[in-house]
Amino acid sequence: MNSTVSQFNYGMVTPVVAFLMACAGSALGLRCTTRSVRMGTQGRRGPWLVLGAICIGSGIWTMHFIAMIGFTIEGASIRYDPALTFLSLGVAVAVVLLGVLIVGYRGASPLTLGAAGVVTGAGVAAMHYIGMNGMKFAGHMTFDPVTVGLSVLIAVTAATAALWAAVSLHTLASAAAASVIMGVAVTGMHYTGMAAMSVHVDAASRVRGQSSMDLLFSLIPMVGGPIVVLVLAAVIVMFDPDMLVGNEPVQDARGHDPESAAVADTRPTASWPSL
């Protein structure tokens, strides 16, 4: 039988905190990716791209499960399968890494950006639904295909915008604005995906309810690790002045500074007098 679900068992606390985590992960990831693009081929781009992917992936995943703290099913006790839960984290980080590697090394041409956005967005949506499949209770879930498709579309759009911002916006203010937009999109993707779900609880297995503290304590250890990673990444960003002020010249894929090249092209060239 269908059961009533609640997305906001703690009011607006969980969606607001989840949104802030998505913004924080996106902001850190965008700055790391931008740092890599600025370095060109003359620096070690790979570690910054990996760190950026870890930040964005961890932020999205943490957002998802903080939001799930406020999710309850009437008449059912919820638990989470650790293997599927951490698999969803691995998927989130892996697909974001693939996306930032594509745009980090191949640039932001429409074709490249579109391909990277589709791969990353589909992976982020997969993370959401793998995480939902890891939710165990006495019953089963069904999903409306149209609403699921809408959630995937939102994920792809958000991922494409984030990847474009990572390689195209080079100031702290623009990165902050892009991270807020990304946070809104990721949070919207999550709750759109949740709206696609209908829950059916087995009548013979109905329980009077689940302690909110039990659910909270079961999820906190899972989200604790990614939060620590984001804190460590924030420390790295804080101790790198170029990450904050963005005063290092931007370099293209060949390690050249396009701004300097443009200036050089406008300088008069010397000519030898004719004999």
Give keywords.
275 residues; mainly alpha; two-stranded antiparallel ribbon; 9 helices; 6 strands; elongated; disordered C terminus
Short structural summary:
The protein has 275 residues and is mainly alpha-helical. The protein has 9 helices and 6 strands; from the N terminus they run βααββααββααβααα. It starts with a strand and ends in a 9-residue tail after the last helix.
Percentage of helical residues?
55-70%
Number of strands: 6
- What is the residue-mean pLDDT, rounded to a whole number? 79
What would you call the structural class? mainly alpha
Strand content: 5-15%
CA gyration radius, whole angstroms: 22 Å
Shape: elongated
How many strands, which pairing sense, and closed or not: the largest β-sheet? 2 strands, antiparallel
Helix and strand pattern: EHHEEHHEEHHEHHH
Which strands sit side by side, in order, in the main sheet?
A: 1-2
Unreliable stretches (pLDDT < 50, length at least 5) are: 244-275
Distance between the termini: 98 Å
Output the number of helix runs.
9
Blueprint (SSEs and pairs):
Layout (H helix, E strand, L loop, with lengths): L4 E2 L6 H27 L5 H25 L2 E2 L5 E2 L1 H25 L3 H24 L1 E2 L2 E5 L1 H24 L3 H24 L1 E5 L10 H27 L2 H5 L12 H9 L9
Antiparallel strand pairs: 1-2, 3-4, 5-6
Helix pairs in contact: 1-2, 1-5, 1-6, 1-7, 2-3, 2-4, 2-6, 2-7, 3-4, 3-5, 4-5, 5-6
Can you give a write-up of this model?
The chain has 275 residues and is mainly alpha-helical. The protein has helices at 13-39, 45-69, 82-106, 110-133, 145-168, 172-195, 212-238, 241-245, 258-266; strands at 5-6, 72-73, 79-80, 135-136, 139-143, 197-201. The strands form three sheets. A two-stranded antiparallel sheet has the order 1-2. A two-stranded antiparallel ribbon has the order 3-4. It has a two-stranded antiparallel sheet with strand order 5-6. Helix 2 (45-69) packs antiparallel against helix 3 (82-106), helix 2 (45-69) crosses helix 6 (172-195) and helix 3 packs antiparallel against helix 4 (110-133).
